[in-house]
Amino acid sequence: MAEPVDWRSSRRKRAEATVISAVGYRLIAALGASLKWRTEGLEHLDGILASGRQPIMAFWHGRILPATIYFRRRGIVVITSANFDGEWIAGIIERFGYATARGSTSRGGRKALLQLTRDMAAGRPAGFTVDGPRGPARVAQPGAVWLAKATGNPVLPFHLEADRHWTLDSWDRTQIPKPFSMVALSIGEPFDVAPDADEAGIERARITLEDRLRALEQRALALVGDAV
What is the pLDDT of residues 124-149, one digit of tens each? Predict the structure, then answer.
């Protein structure tokens, strides 16, 4: 069987990725400029930074758009796939001031996690869509927990909800805030993972992350309701 052709060898595909990134960035930036925000828990993020550590920011894949907008220009490192879609997505988020480690939980994941470990040692925060890139939705994968164990940095869970939005018919039910909508951001308490955590300890931390994200979703929904 012939090896699949790498999309990078196609000048047309490379040009497409560049165009999609440029247009996508402008559209998302315009949407972001129209949004209003209601936040709680920012003191948890500030406390981590004041302690000299960096947050491992953990959230559901379905809220990637508002998260990208709110946390822009902070030098956060995120994992993006090495395929064509990952290329134009990286092009968009890098324009928003993020850095990327290329890989995924299915291909190149270990390499990407090692890159994140090096980036965090250099003083950069990390971001994780903990149920990505393919799900199952709302089931936390252990990558963020593993990174916390390896680096000594805390996991910082958060959730976002918009009062007016479109919901895509995708595995993660991606939420796109409508222009001029209110977006609630709820950040939870950070937690550490012991450097000597065994497999059972990793699993307990993973479940803790899932539970906290579910609670934060309810809190963000309440914030949106209170704002209406």
Answer: 999 999 997 888 999 999 999 999 99
